[in-house]
Amino acid sequence: MKPSLGVKKDAHIVDAAVGKKIRKLRNSRGISQGDMANALGLSFQQIQKYESTATRVSASRMYEMAQILDVTPAAFFMDVVGDPAVQVLGKA
């Protein structure tokens, strides 16, 4: 069983960390879920699903989000390796 960050039971720990990072970056820039959704041509519910890991974020969507948030796609993975939950999996 995979460790959980309070997200969907089947979500991989990295998917959970990416969803949390998307939310953190979006909030730090004052961008609402609705504004992010409009910029991507999606519903705000889809942004909620990405952030809660109910839906995985594709590489192309992650790239688009990075452009909106003015970060590199790698920013979504920052701090994941140092996350104790990832270390529990023996990945770090």
What does this entry show, briefly?
This protein has helices at 13-28, 33-40, 44-52, 59-69, 84-88.
Word description of this protein:
Helices cover 53% and strands 0% of the residues. By secondary structure, the protein is mostly helical. It has a single domain, classed as 434 Repressor (Amino-terminal Domain) (Orthogonal Bundle). The longest helix has 16 residues, at 13-28. 17% of the residues are buried. Residues 1-5 and 85-92 have low confidence and may be disordered.
How is the main sheet built?
none
- The level of helicity is 40-55%
**Uncertain residue ranges:** 1-5, 85-92
- The end-to-end distance, rounded to whole angstroms, is 17 Å
Count of structural domains: 1
Class per helix and strand makeup: mainly alpha
Q: What is the radius of gyration?
A: 13 Å
How many distinct beta strands?
0
How would you state the average pLDDT, rounded?
84
Instruction: Give the CATH class.
Output: Mainly Alpha
Globular, elongated, flat, extended or rod-shaped: what is the shape?
Answer: globular
The CATH H-level superfamily is lambda repressor-like DNA-binding domains
| CATH architecture name | Orthogonal Bundle
Indicate the proportion of strand residues. under 5%
Which series of helices and strands comes N to C? HHHHH
- Alpha plus pi helix count: 5
CATH topology: 434 Repressor (Amino-terminal Domain)
